Amino acid sequence: MSNIYESAEATLGLCNSSCLTKVELRVACGGISDRDALSKPDPCVVLKMQSHGQWFEVDRTEVIRSSISPVFSKVFLVDYYFEEVQRLRYELHDISSAHNGLRDTDFLGAMECTLGQVCGCALRSVRSGQVTVGQFRIVSQRKLTKALLKQGNSTSKCFITVTSEELSGNDDYVELSFSARKLDDKDFFSKSDPFLEIFRINDDGSGSLVHRTETVMNDLSPVWRSFKVSLNTLCSGDHDRQLKCTVYDWDSNGKHDFIGEFHTTFKEIRTDLDGRQMQWDCINPKYQMKKKNYRNSGVVVLNHCKMYSFLDYIMGGCQIQFTVAIDFTASNGDPRNSCSLHYIHPYQPNEYLKALVAMIPSAVASIRTAACIQGVVEAYQSCLPKIQLYGPTNIAPIIQKVASSASEEMHTKEAMEYFILLILTDGVITDMADTREAIVHASHLPMSVIIVGVGNADFSDMQMLDGDDGILRSPKGEPVLRDIVQFVPFKDFKHASPAALAKSVLAEVPNQVVDYYNAKAIHPKCLSDYNESSRAFSP
Question: What is the pTM of this model?
Answer without folding.
Answer: 0.64
